Amino acid sequence: MKLAMLARNPSLYSHRRIVDAAKARGHEIDIINALHVQMNITSSKPTLSLSGRVLPCYDAVIPRIGASITHYGLAVLRQFEMQGVFPLNESVAIGRSRDKLRALQILAREGIGLPVTAFAHGPRGAEAVINEVGGVPCVIKLLEGTQGRGVILAETQASAKSIIEAFNAANMNILVQEFIKEAAGCDIRVLVVGGKVVASMMRMGKSNDFRSNLHRGGKAENVTITDEERATALRSAEVLGLNVAGVDMLRANRGPVVMEVNSSPGIEGMEEATGIDVAGAMIEFLEQRARRGETKTRGTG
Length: 301
Description:
Blueprint: E1 2-6, H1 13-24, E2 28-32, E3 37-40, E4 47-50, E5 53-54, E6 60-63, H2 70-82, E7 86-87, H3 91-98, H4 100-109, E8 117-118, H5 126-132, E9 138-142, E10 151-154, H6 157-169, E11 174-178, E12 186-193, E13 196-204, E14 219-222, H7 227-240, E15 244-252, E16 255-262, H8 268-274, H9 278-289
Parallel strand pairs: 1-2, 1-6, 6-7
Antiparallel strand pairs: 3-4, 4-5, 8-11, 9-10, 9-11, 12-13, 12-15, 13-14, 15-16
């Protein structure tokens, strides 16, 4: 197969591993910076160009679009889909997962376990939102935050109101969620590829940090998940339409609750913790499923 990967930084571990896995299985792969791509949007023959050269016909595209360029990156991915190129994850599904509020609404509609979450516009609703999630302590999240950035634990009513008011004053959209104390600063990431759980790990935050993100100094180890956790991860990826997903869950007393579903999950921590060839699983999925013109959304929706 001839593959394209949309990525800005070819030296990242995840990107290098995907390239190595593709080449090891006899495929060609080009790394393309989505920001450098120009699009010709016509009804008869939509094209993509890079440095004045029309890009060749690819069998599949692997989107590794950074959160900061989601809008333009998804436009480029949609153009590939309009050409009939099979995406590892479709543009519509990535868009759903990147909009945290929309993703939670979809998961809630399907009855998937979530932490109690509240959302309101403007500081006047601050106290009501805090009460909605059971009071303090509570977790306040920026809708646009990634890798643990923009996530704050408010331990008092006064601090929670101040944080919400400060974010609102800066025109930043936030979610307020209940604090799952029994998780004890640990979460579980389950990696789903093609409707199957490929690997899972438990991430533990530093002793003074309730966030367990590896980018913030957390540690990870292989973990055996329960049947309920497996079903929750698979269903979460399915309802968002993701072929590849990193599903982050907490172990609450009432069962697993989903914190976030990542459409471009990092590979390094998972492979180190589990020893599983995650990159190879992604390429194997494309070998089995990639067919021209079989994109469900065809660049729309």
